[in-house]
Amino acid sequence: MNVSKFIILFTLILSSLIAISCDSASDKGVYDKTPKMRAAFAEKGSVYGKGGIIVTGTSSIELEPDMATLSLGIESSASTVSEARDNASSSINEILNVMKNVGIDDEDIQTTAFNIYPQYEYIEVNENGRVRGVQELTGFTVSNMLLVTVKNLDGIGEIIDKITDAGGNDVRFNSINFGIQDPVPYQSELRKLAVEDGVTKASQLAEYSGVKLGAITMIADYSSQPTIAKDQAVFAERAMAIPSTSINPGSLSLSMRIDMVFEIKN
Q1: Residue 240 lies in a domain
Q2: How far is Cα 20 from Cα 35, in angstroms, rounded to an integer?
């Protein structure tokens, strides 16, 4: 085989490999969730290379929360590490005792962060007529943060008050989130509603465009994502004593999205 024939044969093999690679990448793009890939999918048609109708069915249900997650902890400062650590330990133990007394289990209390860091103050010093700033150690801060799950929302405001009183000036509240302890039983209803919504949309598109709706060729099921309501009132410092912090759990939404591909009948 001379050199020219070898070059021609090599070029043909390379072209075939590139074509196969492009087809494979194109098929993978069919299942990509991004708008760009879905647009390319719509332009190409269904997975069988035919024209099709692509829709997204959605569903949501409003529910009353049955649990709350509190992000809280303590932060104590002192001139020495041991003093700051002792103060922090005393405050966190008081908070843990309150949680135990109101019925919060140990398994629902998780330490998320424990930190010890120095505190500095910048001062100006005069050296040979020149003023410069220096860093001077003034003390240490110890923080201990917790993630607490409260499964009984009755009296949640009073629970927060008791925690605040126990921790005193060292207590820190970062957030309160509401949720559903077990969202699984709602998944079936969400899925059913999402599929019905997708079928309705596809039927309307077929009717409005003057074509006949065919069989479903693909369904992509995406997980439900709850939208959590937050009560910001708990973040503010209480300027004066009040009977009980007012906490409104509100409602949250469980939602689902399902992508569907339908054939177009000839």
Answers
A1: no
A2: 24
Total domain count, the chain: 1
Q: State whether residue 106 is helix, strand or coil.
A: helix
Rounded to whole angstroms, the Cα distance separating 38 from 261 reads 11
3 state DSSP class of 128: coil
The Cα 19–Cα 13 span in angstroms is: 10
Q: Which of 209, 191, 202, 212 is nearest to 255 (CA)?
A: 191
What are the start-end ranges of the E strands in the chain? 52-63, 67-78, 109-127, 130-150, 171-179, 212-221, 252-265
In a domain, 222, yes or no: no
This prediction has a pTM of 0.62
Q: What pLDDT, in 10s, does the model give residues 111-136?
A: 999 999 999 988 877 777 787 788 88
| CA–CA distance, 137 with 24 (Å, rounded to integer) | 63
Collapsing DSSP to helix, strand or coil, 232 comes out as: helix
Question: Which CATH number covers residue 151?
Answer: 3.30.70.2970
The CA radius of gyration of the chain, in Å to the nearest whole number, is: 31
Task: Give the domain extent around 104.
Answer: 67-179
Sheet containing strand 212-221, strands side by side: 52-63, 252-265, 212-221
pLDDT digits (tens, 9 = 90+) for 197-249: 999 999 999 999 999 999 999 898 876 444 444 444 443 333 233 345 666 77
Q: Do the domain assignments include residue 173?
A: yes
C-alpha distances (whole Å) from 90 to each of 166, 167, 230 are 10, 9, 30
Judge whether 103 lies within some domain: yes
